[in-house]
Amino acid sequence: MKTEHIDRPAILAEMNAAFYRYEQALITNDTAVLDELFWHDPRTVRYGAGENLYGIDAIRAFRTARSSQGLDRELVNTTITTFGDDMAVASTEFRREGSDKTGRQQQTWVKMASGWKIVAAHVSLMV
């Protein structure tokens, strides 16, 4: 891929908007938006801090059962890179109040006909 196709300003702006929309939905436990932003497919994968979820149905079940308490967090070292017009990788670290652990989150996003969707995600905590 030619470097001029990486981080095109308009595509990067779209992806930043999608990423921060996801972040707002995450900390407010807006499960409808979280569901909207994941690819609705059995091949979607989300590796969490304590669970491995395969497919949109497993991801939905996890979101529905999860507590909505203590979701606020501070993001640090966020990096979003777009490749062409329809693929991006978002990486960030996060910290929650009252915890000395650093969390890490990485997502692969693909622009579908219905908009930007997370097709793979990984969340972990550094020990």
TrEMBL record:
Domain of life: Bacteria
Entries under Pfam families matching the protein: AtzH-like
InterPro entries linked: AtzH-like, NTF2-like_dom_sf
NCBIfam families: HpxZ
Protein's name according to its UniProt entry: Oxalurate catabolism protein HpxZ
Organism: Rahnella aquatilis (strain ATCC 33071 / DSM 4594 / JCM 1683 / NBRC 105701 / NCIMB 13365 / CIP 78.65)
